[in-house]
Amino acid sequence: MSYVGPDFEPPQPRRSRRGPLTVALAALVPGALLGWLVYETVGGSGDGGGSGEAAVRSSPPAASSAPSDDAKEPSAEPTPSDAPSTSAPAASGPLKGKVVVIDPGHNPSNFQHPTEINRKVNIGMNWKECDTTGTSTNDGYTEAKFTLDVAHRLRTLLEEQGATVKLTQDDDRPYGPCVDERARIGNAAKADAVVSIHADGSGAGNRGFHVILPGAVHGGAADTRAIVAPSRDLGERVAGRFVAVTGSAPANYIGDGSGLVTRKDLGGLNLSTVPKVFIECGNMRDSKDAALLTSGAWRQKAAQGISEGITSFLRA
Ligand SMILES: [Zn+2]
């Protein structure tokens, strides 16, 4: 989520700036958000605002299966406790030799370790809490559970492409890791790409996804200057494919409709020395977005979109 704790500072709501600006800004991102432009055209969303209704219209309805499919749906993955955090080397595939680190935001057990996760860690130029609990839907589906599920699906898809995949956590530790360690895991793996998976906790009516890109930060242990450009490339590709596969619109409350937000306050980005982005897949506190986020079928699409964005970046 974007709104509490070390992950995120309070946003500046910009809902009034939707409309024509959405298309204008999307057009400023050549190629990467082509899927969004196509979506806008095909979806026939005349106001250019990418309203929530438009997003629903272009994707299969998920509401019928949303409330309970978590419990019913067969998992696409082995149970997390049985799964190693690092995949076996793939024999072949277009991503053979590539290392991808997936960072599932938060940790399902952070709730039970407030002292540990509130401990301040150095994120370069300042200090922030080790980690946060994350948000949840109004019905109690936690962001931490969501991020792990998407991470598992994403791992499977990337491994099928031949990538070596490592998770920063797999519900295999009592809390965390802290945001500084999350960054170090990607650095130590010499990852070719890192994607941190999240879902937001904004107000009802705020809908859609956004990808968070590192801004240029140089000070203390932080120096993102070398990763700003490749991270933007990665983020634009992930956003473009996420739109195309899920049919979800870029956030209507942040990012001016572009689905992209640059930030300099996130330790997980500031301490990274390898290309890295966050994705906020939707808003857990909006009932329509929650219906998507709680659907296993939709999470598979989310993972597919992210996977295609990563693959596109790594093969460029
Ligand atoms: Zn989060």
Report the total helices: 11
Number of domains: 1
The residue-averaged pLDDT reads 81
- Give the proportion of residues in helices: 25-40%
Assembly state here?
Answer: single chain
Note the gap between the termini: 30 Å
Q: What is the spatial order of strands in the main beta sheet?
A: 4-1-5-10-6-9
Using the 3D structure, state the CATH architecture: 3-Layer(aba) Sandwich
CATH topology label? Aminopeptidase
Number of strands: 10
Describe what you observe in this structure:
Residues 40-114 are annotated as: Disordered. Residues 54-68, 76-92 have a biased composition (Low complexity). This is N-acetylmuramoyl-L-alanine amidase. Residues 183-311 form the MurNAc-LAA domain. By secondary structure, the chain is α/β, with parallel strands linked by helices. It has a single domain, classed as Zn-dependent exopeptidases (Aminopeptidase, 3-Layer(aba) Sandwich). Helices cover 35% and strands 14% of the residues. The chain contains 11 helices and 10 strands. Helix 8 (228-246) packs across helix 11 (296-315). The radius of gyration is 18 Å and the shape is globular. Zinc ion binds at residues 1, 7, 105-106, 134, 143, 198.
What's the layout of helices and strands?
Layout (H helix, E strand, L loop, with lengths): L19 H8 L6 H10 L8 H6 L11 H4 L26 E6 L9 H5 L1 E3 L4 E3 L13 H18 L3 E4 L11 H10 L4 E8 L9 E5 L3 E2 L2 E2 L4 H19 L13 E4 L3 H4 L5 E8 L3 H7 L2 H20 L1
Parallel strand pairs: 1-4, 1-5, 5-10, 6-9
Antiparallel strand pairs: 2-3, 6-10, 7-8
Helix pairs in contact: 2-8, 6-11, 8-11
